[in-house]
Amino acid sequence: MATNRDRKHYNRAPGSHSGDADEIVIGAEDPHEGQGLCGTILSVLSWVLVVCTFPLSLCVCIKVVQEYERAVIFRLGRLLAGGAKGPGIFFVLPCIEAYTKVDLRTVSFDVPPQEVLTKDSVTVSVDAVVYYRVNNATISVANVENAHHSTRLLAQTTLRNVLGTKNLADILSERESISSSMQTSLDAATHQWGIKVERVEIKDVRLPVQLQRAMAAEAEASREARAKV
């Protein structure tokens, strides 16, 4: 059973519904909780600085994010309540608040060719393409150091693991089912990173030259046998 301390550091994403209890964010507690006297003083000084330098302070404090972007704001190193901001204009206090922009558009990347040993002990080189997007900006920033890089590394590992359980004939003839299996595995694994995997496609399956010649000779012999019959 988790202790109170564990619950404090692993709470639901700000603004999430009760049905999204599995979407936990590290350090997503109330930013005012535990802020202390020093944090309160710094917040007051920041507001005083904004008022004293008005309207020049608006050039520093007012930020804009595009329709396809969100801004995750940290105040004194703690997540700001209310979740990611945007699209449009939002306000950032100088000196005590920092923000990170997150792009929500779909991203595609090529999985480098992976040397895979199939279930029937045949070595093949397979590459794929993965389409994904950031589904929760707050989680993608708070729960993982680099969500995009982690997703790409996981895609390479998942490709090898899935193909390692298939025969060569299955890889050549069941690409759609393999792609669907990869998508399900990736989507489940990246859910805690705020990533939604939309589609996975097997691009190419390259066989060793000797195996290609052997398969061609086998097919030619089979055709000759049918012709004789």
UniProtKB/TrEMBL annotation:
- Transmembrane region positions? 44-65
Q: Which domain of life is it from?
A: Eukaryota
Q: Which UniProt keywords apply?
A: Membrane, Transmembrane, Transmembrane helix
> Which is a Gene Ontology cellular component entry for this protein?
plasma membrane
Family classification? Belongs to the band 7/mec-2 family.
What is this protein identified as? Band 7 domain-containing protein
Q: Which PANTHER family match?
A: BAND 7 PROTEIN-RELATED, PODOCIN
Residue ranges with Basic residues bias: 1-11
Tell me where in this chain the Band domain is found.
Answer: 60-219
Give its localization. Membrane
Annotated Pfam families: Band_7
> What high-level taxonomic lineage is stated for the organism?
Eukaryota, Metazoa, Spiralia, Lophotrochozoa, Annelida
